[in-house]
Design goal:
With about 210 residues, this protein is mainly α. It contains 6 helices and 2 strands.
Length: about 210
């Protein structure tokens, strides 16, 4: 098994926390969003600690560096994507305020995004440092990377064609999404989708090779 039970438990905790953080529900006086966000950060801190002290308790010893980096990227890009979708859905409802770079949604989202990117860089660096003597990329790794890039480019093309068709057919209903900063955020979302697609492809290909 590539991931240890401890790693799977931490990933499950992070996923559940991310889902709870995306909800606007409360149970009594308990805000599920706050609880979920706390679980995500605690899970990521423990995960980073394991990467630093006991990397073999996360991945099996025979896992190549590219596969390990693929899993790290998938976890963080998925968290970024989930947070971004929540931000993007709420953005048009701000109306005129959505045209300002700094608004009531962009500030907390920017802080959250910065923390996730910082955590991603730290974990990726720890994983890379644990296998300094290993071959970074072999021929199989390069084939998988090129396949991921081709798939991501295809997904991007399909999304852009779909967006054009939607604008042509329902342009009047999409006016709230055509504000300059909303469009800029949508383009940023395309880049996140592209990278998420690449990460998913890489992880799935390595998983298939292990079967």
């Amino acid at each position: 098994m590539l991931l240890s039970r401890r790693a799977l438990f931490l990933l499950s905790l992070i996923v559940l926390g991310a889902i709870a953080a995306s909800l606007t529900l409360s149970i009594g006086k308990v805000d599920l969003g706050v609880v979920g966000g706390t679980l995500v950060y605690l899970g990521l801190i423990v995960l980073a600690g394991l990467f630093a002290k006991r990397p073999d308790e996360i991945f099996s010893p025979d896992a190549p560096p590219a596969e390990r980096q693929g899993w790290v990227s998938l976890v963080f890009v998925a968290l970024i994507a989930l947070s971004f979708v929540r931000f993007l859905i709420a953005l048009p409802a701000l109306g005129v305020e959505a045209d300002r770079m700094s608004n009531s949604l962009s500030r907390p989202f920017g802080v959250h995004l910065g923390l996730l990117i910082f955590g991603w860089a730290v974990c990726a660096g720890l994983v890379r440092g644990a296998q300094r003597d290993a071959v970074e990329l072999d021929e199989r790794d390069l084939r998988i990377r090129h396949g991921a890039q081709r798939l991501a480019a295809g997904v991007m093309s399909c999304i852009m064609i779909g967006a054009i068709v939607l604008l042509v057919m329902r342009g009047a209903e999409m006016q709230a999404w055509l504000r300059p900063l909303v469009v800029a955020n949508l383009l940023l979302g395309l880049l996140i989708v592209r990278h998420l697609t690449e990460c998913l492809y890489v992880v799935v290909r390595y998983w298939q090779a292990r079967r």
